[in-house]
Amino acid sequence: MTGAGGSIRAAVPEDFEQVYPLLRQLNDTRITRDIWRRLFLPLWRGADFVPGYVVEDGEKVVGFIGTLYSERQIDGVAQRICNLTSWIVLPEYRQQSVMLLMPLLRDKSVTLTSLTSSHEAYAVYKKLGFQDLDAGARVVYRFPPLWPSRYRLYRGAQALSRLDDAMAKIYRDHSGLDLEHCRVEGKDGGCYLVLEKKRGRAHVHFISDPAWFRRHLGGFRYRLLSALGMKTLQVDERFLQQQRIFFSRRKVFDQPKQIRSRQLGGDSIDALYSELVVLATPWPG
User: In the Cβ-directed half-sphere of 252, how many Cα atoms lie within 13 Å?
Assistant: First the structure.
């Protein structure tokens, strides 16, 4: 695809060396070169995966948007989801920015998400029909339960041994990333959690059973956070469904998370297979 000031083409893994200087302009100093490279690695994807799209002027890459595709079973139906990430174009080629999205917008069978948009990107996505997912999250404090806690907590390989096949696949697909995998169990069931530890806070990226999580969070949060060495737990509001959580506060995102889909509602979207897990950085300790 060609336009004024450059042409658009699918990215290939070998483009990383040219794209990396653009990614550094996104100003997240926590993300190292090796972590950025994950956007150009197969991870859970097949060998023929497309890392994204680039704007190219001659042999020079001047713009990029990353695409993290996954196939998920949601309510028994196979769904294709594409998380958009790291959208950046050099200023003199900004007229090509929206052209990067055109190959993605044509396929209406794919659900598109944007989970960390800039102010400018959020406004563009909004004009293109994206809907808001969440405007904020609850930050839940590590507070001892008001009654004796009888929950069992399993981490890492111990958690994997207690997962069914579908959840075990999620574990294996994400096992090479800087994430925590936990299984919390009580007398009436349990749930599997995928979390990221960042700046003293555990960010919840996936909950296998949100209803169980909501019912029991007050009872197990102290044990979970103590085991992880974290002070607080951050949970996107859509997973809590307006349930009141004692000893918590609301955090407002800089920009709401967004979705564009004909197939799925916001409650079906988590952060698995997205930039939030792929670009997660290791936490000391």
Answer: 1
Measured between alpha carbons, how far is residue 281 from residues 29, 32, 34, 106, 157 in Å?
A: 11, 8, 10, 33, 20
pLDDT tens by residue, 91-105: 999 989 999 999 999
Cβ–Cβ < 8 Å for 31, 39: no
Amino acid in the structure at residue 115? L
Q: Sign (positive/negative) of CA torsion 45, 49, 51, 53?
A: negative
Domains of the chain, earliest start first? 2-135 (3.40.630.30), 137-252 (3.40.630)
Question: pTM for this one?
Answer: 0.94
- The CA distance from 120 to 276, in Å, is 19
Q: What share of the chain is helix, strand, coil (3-state, %, to 5)?
A: 30, 35, 35
Whether residue 176 contacts residue 183, with contact meaning beta carbons closer than 8 Å, is answered with: no
